[in-house]
Amino acid sequence: MSDRPARSHGRLSIAPARTPSDLTDGPPRLKDAWEARVVTLFPEAFPGTLGLSLTGKALQEGLWRLTPVDLRAFGEGRHRNVDDTPAGGGAGMVLRPDVVDRALRLAARDTPPDAADWPVVYLSPRGRPFDQATAQRWSRAKGLTLLCGRFEGVDQRVLDAHAVEEVSLGDFVLTGGEIAAQALIDATVRLIPHVLGNRASTEEESFSDHLLEHPQYTRPVRWSGRDIPDILLSGHHGHIAEWRRAEAERLTKERRPDLWRAYRAARGGDPDEDREL
User: Fold this and answer.
1) Which domains are present in the chain?
2) Which of 49, 118, 223, 246 is the most buried (most CB within 10 A)?
3) Which DSSP category does 164 fall into?
4) Distance CA 200, CA 161 (A)
């Protein structure tokens, strides 16, 4: 058991331990609620922003669960060491396979054996880029285990032994996986039924159809000399839908040619059409 004091995050509290414990002791535990288990050296980083707004409300209502697993609790010796120097030399430290293995085995308790039902993911800059399709896939699973790396990374043997899926948030390097884990969980949890309350909002947003989202406007009609486009004030829903689709296509062509090619290919068109844009 960790000696760290519990930390308060509003109505949510954390008491990291060797045994996973939900962050929500008071709210109801709904049967088959989607769950995220996060193996981390910093369990106090959770729920973080996940405890706010709609994801926080859904967490309190038991629509999903968040369980941190304190990696330090599985460390070696008196000082709970979790890392060692890289084999073959080099700078930095590497998380030990025996330590990570014990934590992943604990996190796997009572989870389904099929990786499709419960993916185990290591947050790594060398992983496959995270996208909306991955968030949708994870949201259809029963839960997800995320391994937050630190230092120079994790011993490859334990990743292989647990068939861990490696995923990257982007082509940059963070000091650890905790921030990335929160982003990935947020992107996934919001797709769980009833979390946002408006299913249509997740169907119309960016990346749902290989397109970036169209521009958004709200009152006042005129602000700082700039007006809301007249079409959005026309009340003609068909014309508005056409305008939004055209704007989404224009933005995607200009800013994300990779998405535009995927969009064209999905509709049987020439993926390279309008390449000059």
Assistant:
1) 7-189 (3.40.1280.10), 206-266 (1.10.1270.20)
2) 118
3) P
4) 40
> How does pLDDT run across 5-17, given as a tens digit for each residue?
444 343 343 334 4
Beta bridge partners, 68, equal 38
Residue pLDDT, tens place only, 153-164: 999 999 999 999
Pairing relationship of beta strands 83-84 and 94-95 according to DSSP bridges: antiparallel
Q: How many Å apart are CA 95 and CA 84, to the nearest integer? A: 7
**Residue 142 · residue 112 · CB < 8 Å:** yes
pLDDT at 3 over 50: no
On whether the CB atoms of residues 47 and 11 are closer than 8 A, the answer is no
DSSP 208: T
CB 55 within 8 A of CB 189: yes
Helix (H, G, I), strand (E, B) or coil at 175: coil
Burial 143-155 (b: 16+ CB within 10 A, else e): bbbbbbbbbebbb
Residue 187: CB atoms within 10 Å: 19
* C-alpha torsion angle, residues 277, 258, 200, 59 (rounded to 10): -130
Local confidence band at 24 (pLDDT 50, 70, 90 cut-offs): very low
The model's pLDDT over 60-83, given as tens digits with 9 standing for 90+, comes to: 999 999 999 999 999 999 999 999
**DSSP bridge pairs for 166:** 122
> Identity (one letter) of the amino acid at 267?
R
